[in-house]
Amino acid sequence: MTKPDSSSTIPDDDLSRSLTVAKPETDQGLTHLAIVGDTYTILVSGQETGGKYTMIDMLIPPGGGPGPHRHDFEEMFSILEGEVELTFRGQTSVARAGETVNIPANAPHVFTNKTDAQVRLLCVCAPSGQEEFFEAIGTPVATRTTPAPEMSEAEKAAFKKKSAELAPKYRTELLKHA
Fold it and tell me: Residue 126's domain is classified under what CATH number?
């Protein structure tokens, strides 16, 4: 390996950081979380990227998806399987497998699986922090494909209350309408 040019404007390699290889089907060390009926797997955390971004594998069952919200960080997702109905600043569209959506920071949005099949998204948030919110409100599950457990009405109410209380700490605002 060649020695870096001392006149380079690119910082030296940060040897305290390592290569991350996420294997969501087999890696027992990944965090899998049930959130509002969906299953999210944290593939790459902000801790692994120096806070620059996080990457999350999202499995959205029929009828699933988060409620209307907004946050002060960029969110991008690629639809790997299926399609989602997306409402962005009050306008509704459909994003299908093979398509990528970027949601600018602070913009109100919501997405829902309106089909009869599961949807799989690959979500990137920059800077990181969204994964910490999910870890604070989610319920651990065994694998990337483990369905979220059914929740009673009391459990749903407690989840909504906890999410609303914690959202501001994670730079997120839960909305009544997108």
Answer: 2.60.120.10
- 45 in a domain, yes or no? yes
Report whether pLDDT(50) > 90: yes
The pTM of the full predicted model, rounded to 2 decimals, is 0.91
65 three-class SS: coil
Task: Look up the domain containing 77 and give its range.
Answer: 35-142
For the sheet with 91-96, list strands across it. 91-96, 83-88, 109-112, 69-71, 172-174
Q: What CA–CA distance (Å, rounded) separates 86 from 28?
A: 32
Q: What is the dihedral of CA 157, 160, 166, 172, to 10 degrees?
A: -170
Pairing state between β 31-35 and 38-44: antiparallel
For 86-121, the pLDDT digits (tens) are 999 999 999 999 999 999 999 999 999 999 999 999
Pairing status of strand 172-174 against strand 109-112: unpaired
Helix and strand element counts for the chain (H, E): 2, 12
Q: In this structure, is the dihedral angle defined by the CA atoms of residues 163, 104, 110 and 141, taken in order, positive or negative?
A: negative
- Asked if residue 23 is part of any domain, the answer here is no
